[in-house]
Every structure is written in C-alpha cells, then in structure tokens.
Amino acid sequence: MNDLDGPGRYQYMSFNAPLSEAHADAIAARLAYARPADVLDIGCGWGELMLRVLDRTPRAVGMGVDTDEELLARGSAAAAQRGLDERVTFINTPGVSVGQQADLVICVGASHAFGGHAAALTTLLQHVRPGGRLFYGDGLWDPTVTPKKPELVWADFFDLPDLAGLVDLAVATGYLPLFTETASPDELDDFESRYLADGAEWLLRHPGHPGAANVRAGTEDHRRRWLHGYRGAFGFAYLTLGRPAA
C-alpha cells in the first residue's frame, strides 16, 4: 500500500498483543524446551511467536492460520527472511475450520473467532495432541476497578473474566495449568501506543490529506476510550496449558 493511501497496519508492533520482546523470548524459550514436533498457530496474524519457537526447535514444523491475507503475507516474508520458509506454512482459513492436531497450539487474541473463552478453550483442546500444550492469550477484566468513564468502554470488555475465572475455566475444560502470566501495565501501555502510532505518525506526515479527518477521529476515539475508559481495568492473560496424556 502507498503511504498516501492511508496509515499502515501494525507497522510499529512485533506482536498484535501486549507482549514485550523480553517476555516473548522467555515464553518462546519455555515452549521450545518441551521440543514440540509441530506447532499450530490459530489466528496467527503474522505468526511472530510461532516463528520464535521454530527458531529454537530446528526439527519442528509450523502452520499458521488466519483470514487476513495481508498479515499472512507479512508472516511468510518474515519466515523467508529467517530461513524458516521450508518449515512453516501460512494458510488463509478460519480457525474454526482447522482439523489438525499439534504438540504445541498457539492461540493469542483470537477467542472471539470461536465465540469467547469457553468455546475457544473447548475447541482448542481437540487440537492439542495428548501430552501437548496450548499457549493461550486473551483479554481479562478486573471487576474491582471502576473506569473513569464506563460509557467509553466497549461493552464486551465487561463480560471478560478475571484471571482466576479464566484459569478455573481452563481447568474445568480439561487442561492442566503449567504457567500463568499476565501482561504488565507497561506492556499494556506500550501495546496501545504502538497500535495508535500507525494513525498518529501518518497524520504527522499528511495533515492536509483528504482522509486525515477520518484518521484523526478514529485515532482520537480509540485513545480516549483507552485513557479514560478501560485503562487499568483491562488486562491480558498468557496461559500455558497442558492436555494430559491419558
């Protein structure tokens, strides 16, 4: 896309999730330590975490599935740049249509594709080979925090579980929790800032562009919702869950 066509997408982000470089590398190293033979990333975007796991497991193969062709192309280009293109495949298909199992399944920020946490965890269990692992990341809500302006919070955020509720749901579904983590406040702020940087940086270069008013309105609306609405109450969990071999 030409810069004059409008802002880029996720160009300042390594991950479409609140995840720092150091945290991501620690997670990838831990997931690779289990030596999965194959990795399945459902709702992969550009599959950065999967690629980091494959970097650390030379014999493993990976498959990333998503329905965003632009992000899949970014993932394919990154795999080729790292010399992983012969071990990883990116496929344009809905997550709900995937039939494969894998030693390691990754699903970060994609529970909405299944209809929420409960449905996602239930469906994903079938994709984890017995004895394997699911790395699951998604949103949380802290009911003890009162937003400054609740009317600015997207309604579905209020339906998210807290951390204990999400872990309890995973256990009830049949998983064994191995590691329970959350994004730090700094990771959450960095994620929002990087997300908003696409529009803000573009506006700096093209303040008189015919589309600038719409970009500015969208950017300011999101920033207002974040800073005056859900900041401090919205969180993000990273769960490493095992499927018992029996």
TrEMBL record:
InterPro entries: Methyltransf_25 (IPR041698), SAM-dependent_MTases_sf (IPR029063)
All residue ranges annotated as the Methyltransferase domain in the record: 39-132
EC class of the enzyme, as a word: transferase
Listed CDD domains: AdoMet_MTases
Biological processes, Gene Ontology terms: methylation
Transferase is among the record's keywords: yes
Keywords (A to Z) from UniProt: Methyltransferase, Transferase
Enzyme Commission number(s) from the entry: 2.1.1.-
Domain of life: Bacteria
An MF annotation (GO) of this entry: methyltransferase activity
Designated name of the protein: SAM-dependent methyltransferase
Species name: Hamadaea flava
